[in-house]
Design a protein that fits this description.
Length: 115
């Protein structure tokens, strides 16, 4: 999986300043989970942010695009490097961390005992 290792290091530092987190490789990159919620992802193109369906249009401005792959990822936007450099990484990441901290943790997934 290809993702920007330096950006991932910077995201780790920003999130760690506010919350504990887990990392999971997915979407062809690295996703950061805060309070069991996917919050931020790092790809080779920049950041993926889970903003929710209701905020996709509100955060859409130059350099941000709704995330599309083989199918649309509802409520996720991609932030390119020029926007990160312009606005600062923490300005994008910390609000998403705060939202995740305010949500109840997801219950653990039950695994079937059938064979």
């Amino acid at each position: 999986m290809a993702y920007d290792e330096e950006l991932a290091r910077q995201v780790r530092a920003v999130i760690a300043s506010r919350a504990e987190f887990d990392e999971i490789k997915m979407f062809g990159g690295l996703c950061f989970m805060v309070n069991t919620h996917m919050t931020v992802g790092v790809t080779e193109h920049g950041l993926l942010l889970r903003v929710g369906k209701e905020l996709v249009d509100a955060v859409a401005r130059g350099g941000t695009v709704p995330m599309m792959g083989q199918r649309a990822m509802t409520g996720v936007v991609r932030i390119d490097r020029t926007v990160i450099a312009r606005d600062g990484l923490a300005a994008w990441v910390l609000p998403r961390v705060e939202v995740a901290l305010g949500l109840p943790p997801k219950p653990p997934k039950r695994r079937s005992t059938r064979r």
